[in-house]
Amino acid sequence: MDDLLNEFLNETKENLDQLDVELVKLEQEPNNPELLGSIFRVMHTIKGTCGFLGLPRLEHIAHAAENVLGRIRDGKLEVTAYAISMILESLDQIKFIISVLEDTSVEPEGEDEGLIAALNQLASGEAPAGDGDAGGDAAPTTVAATGDAGSAVESEQPSETAAPEAVVSETVAAAPAPKPAKVPAKAVEAKPAAAARDDGDKNANQSIRVGVDLLENLMNMVSELVLTRNQLLQISRSHKDNEFTVPLQRLSHVTSELQEGVMKTRMQPIGNAWNKLPRIIRDLANELNKKIDLVMVGEDTELDRQVLELIKDPLTHMVRNSADHGIEGLADRKAAGKNETGTIKLEAYHEGGHIIISIADDGKGLNLDRIKEKALSNGLATVDELAAMADSQIHQFIFKAGFSTAAAVTSVSGRGVGMDVVRTNIEKIGGTIELTSAEGKGSTFMIKIPLTLAIVSALIVGVGEERFAIPQLSVVELVRVTKGSDHKIETINGSPVLRLRDRLLPLVSLRKVLDIAGPDENEGGKSMFIVVTQVGVHSFGMIVDRVYDTEEIVVKPVSPILRHISLFSGNTILGDGSVIMILDPNGIAAKTGELSGNETGLASKADALVASNDDQVSFLVFNAGSKSPFAVPLALIARLEEVEIKKIEFSNGQPLVQYRGSLMPLVTISKDYAIPEDGVLPVLVFSDANRSMGLIVDNIIDIVEESARINLPTDSEGLLGSMILRGVATDLIDAHYYMKLAFADWFKTTTKRSEGAQKTSGRRVLLVDDSAFFRNLLVPVLTVSGYEVVALENPLAAIKLREAGEMFDLIVSDIEMPEMDGLTFARNVKGDPSWNRLPLLALSSFSNPEDMLKAKNAGFDDYVPKFDRDALLQTIDRVLNGVAVAA
Questions:
Q1: Do 801 and 838 meet the contact criterion of CB atoms below 8 Å apart?
Q2: Nearest to residue 498, comparing CAs of 464, 468, 542, 462?
Q3: Strand order in the sheet with 764-768
Q4: I want to staple 697 with a disulfide (CB 3.0 to 4.6 A). Which of 106, 302, 390, 624 is the partner?
């Protein structure tokens, strides 16, 4: 009986978790017969097994709840909030009794007459006081409601109490099914009982329960087996063509399959930690008089069961916080122009060997003023310190111990114990938590949980005399740099960069980051390797001396004494017995500044010209035959080259150089610029498709990131205007002009832009184009014309801005895009009330009448060939003025 009791307790806890979720769903879908049938069967199973095991208190509660569900199933009782609440209350009481049973194997003393009487009253169709809709129009049934819950028997539904044989076959299929005298057997419908037996047999045959300690021990043994396998393979490599080669290969294969199987036994879907959240949100919404919709995405994302247990409580606390602090009350949401129902979105996914969990709400966001007041009153900062802080820094105060912005202590919050514990628990498992919030729009928490104990494939690299492991999930590719190769490391303002397929890739020297003694990588022209690493959506390269091999490694957590060093995610033992550190690309990028936090997440230094909320753009600053410096958007530059003057040729007076198998025209910053007779010239290479043009400069000064605002417009040829970069007046060149000097047909030009285009200050333009080249070309042109520009690479990102409440005066969109084409995007815009009045302008490399007609039919207001910059400016001016007049 002890074994049967343990089996019952384990299965009942799982069933109760399932009921919590399904009952909340039933409240939202009251006419779902399959859902109702599933709930009834589970409760029926719990009740029947209680009777078999001699647990009368549990049986009486389950029986009363089953009566209510039976009445709902037969259509004699409506699904109401009160009915669901009563059944949930009965589940809570069952959970309490089970918790005592786990410790003592005996039901706790006590009576449940009040709860059972309320359930029986509900089953009879009588509405309780103060709840007029609880019973609906359901016809009453004959129920003997007395002080003894066990005598409450429905006379109309004898089939609802199954025979003990059926009950046992549902829950404990392997055990015999004696007929106890405690619960009298009643008539059972043959088909449901048979179906229950079949389901029970199938489940019993397909799964068994295994102790967690046994799995942990098995995992440790497999880890040791992997290390031993690696050592044997290391020995085999040094003794080639011996009789052990083939058996070792087979051993390696079997070991890999074994470790994969054991890893799977440890993995559980994160949905197991989310099961209780719908119930929590439902109860909170009722308690706080709010309407809240909980959206869960990625429930099947798997993670280690130990990690799952550790994040359950932090997740629960954060979701409760979103419901209490984040989502506004009905009146406040209505006053803010929002839907009455607030949304909390819970999302989980894998990224670069980590698990990312996002908790986002569309509520009121964090109140900066209130946080500042609490920070001052708690002595966490001074007035001057707060004034110097960015909003994102002030938000971090909510993670301080004892910090709460709640006006009063409630059962939900206000005690100042919460987010500090959440951060501590997440950091205990080597995770991180990030917060972004916009007042009036909502807050988002991003939890990143790294690998703590796992067997992963890693790339082993060498720096100096040291070796390190890099998880292969983070490695995109390897690039070898040698003297005379196409790939060449260049240094700009002391920072190494690599041009990789028309993109500047920022580089990190592991030797410098890890402070390993030795010569600089660029000295002596020796060959080196660059490990191109992906962190989120951004990439950077790590310079290493050698690449050894890939190897499956056992990841051991970093010692507590080293946990504060973000460069490492763990350590491992190699096949030769060496202990090496596992590098964390996220920590390396953060330490070296390749990633910087902003209000929209992580941003790469090398992702240059897409205009952000603060219009920050990376510019390359250089000198070229003038006392004042020049600048050009960094993202427009394909490569930085050095050209030997003696190799420059001339054709029709045009300087040329043989470049990558073709002739590349060279242009100078001004007609008066004289090319020296000897030496080497720096050249900025601009490329698009198969065309390249080189702009000759004297020297490169720096790369700076500044606001893309023109302080002094100009009509001078080749210039867009003057701006201040790091306190120095700098001329911004018009790359469009120099491209035309190299190839007259690179762009088609028409008349000068209209005077009206200069009077556009404050107008917001959304530019959507999947071509980085055209985005980078048009953003400064539109900016200098007075527009505030937000540039995106696909319509899906634009739709997210719309959902976030962003507004614009005009949308300029490409037609040919991969994820969603411009025509579909236009129909989407015109079909949404928030943006359907915005003028839409189509950009395309096609300009025949048929294409124009398709664009018009999709909802575009006008159509401009994307290579005609001046026509674009004129059309924007005309469309905006026309809309303004029409309004």
A1: no
A2: 542
A3: 788-792, 764-768, 810-814, 840-844, 862-865
A4: 624
